[in-house]
Fold:
Amino acid sequence: MTDIFIAGGRTLVDGALVETSLRTAGLDIAALDAEQGRAALHLDASGLLVLPGIIDLHGDAFERQMMPRPGVDFPTDVALIDSDRQVIANGITTVFHGTTWSWEPGLRSAENARKLLDAIEALRPQLAADTRFHLRHETHNLEAEAEIIQWLREGRIDLFAFNDHSNVKPKKRNQSAERAGLSLEAFNELIDQVVARRPDVPASIARLASVARDANVRMLSHDDNSPAMRQEFRALGVTVAEFPVNEETARDAAAAGDFIVFGAPNVVRGGSHTGWTKASDMIANGLCSVLASDYYYPAQLLAAFRLAADGILPLAKAWDLISAGPARAAGLEDRGVLAAGHRADIIIVDDKLPLRPRVVAVIAAGRLVHLTDASCLVHSLAPRKTVAAA
Structure:
């Protein structure tokens, strides 16, 4: 690790873009409007943006590295290392891998959940992004409750979500059966067994939520479909609403001060692939506080610039949805903004093509971990003072 000096960029500071310099020291940002000092590595960001690293609370694109085709598996460690390269190249410096532990066999099975958790814990020291475990618990998976309680108490879970995908629509059952490695007939039988457990689910949710509260683990509810559903989860201490399926539910969450997560791909593509809520409309109405990569790692970066280009939010506000907003939702007080004493998670972006931003460099916890343009590396730079950016 070496101290880094970045000069000349349009830097996001206190909600505005200013031309300034900054210097890192160890893991953290040492100073803004900094002099060159004794930093050993110098980056010239002239004409570029200097932004806080992206924080991804919910991404499961790593599943495609584990199983690129149905029935084709690759080792978990290989998948995680490749996913780390992808997240860093897209400016994501803190990533919560959304790991679904379902009642299904196959990709989202108990065996894979255990493998993923073990692999994340073992590989963390060598991964460039701060890699964390977001457990997406299928609420009808009652057999998992005892083990999840143990994981919560041991501090192995960083985010904990309640999901219910037991109502698999007929047109999606072939795809789900393929992912689980089952025939359609066997999958339909499994669904019948799962649905029969429904009376026991609320008590299980309450027990798990109680343990998560005691362990100070932030909780999320997925696909809330009504204000009543959101209120029930809120009463259990679940303060993050992931992908509320209609505006009425999102408004209830916002009125109560809950965090609201939508998918960045929804913004980039101009709508939800499921036909539900349009994220850009929710953002325009103040009903979104976090954008997550969901199933596509480049989407957060692209979404922020799309929101700015479409006039929905200025870039500084749009960036809050993928950096400071997720930090607040996850309780990460040491990152999400560029400020002295905060973790040195910094990305440098070329925005000459507004809808196709290019990540030039990534600094994660004070280390230069990604560089696509060596011309930014210089031997010496003249100190600069802060001025308003054009």
User: Anything to note?
Assistant: Confidence is low (pLDDT under 50) at residues 380-387. The radius of gyration is 21 Å.
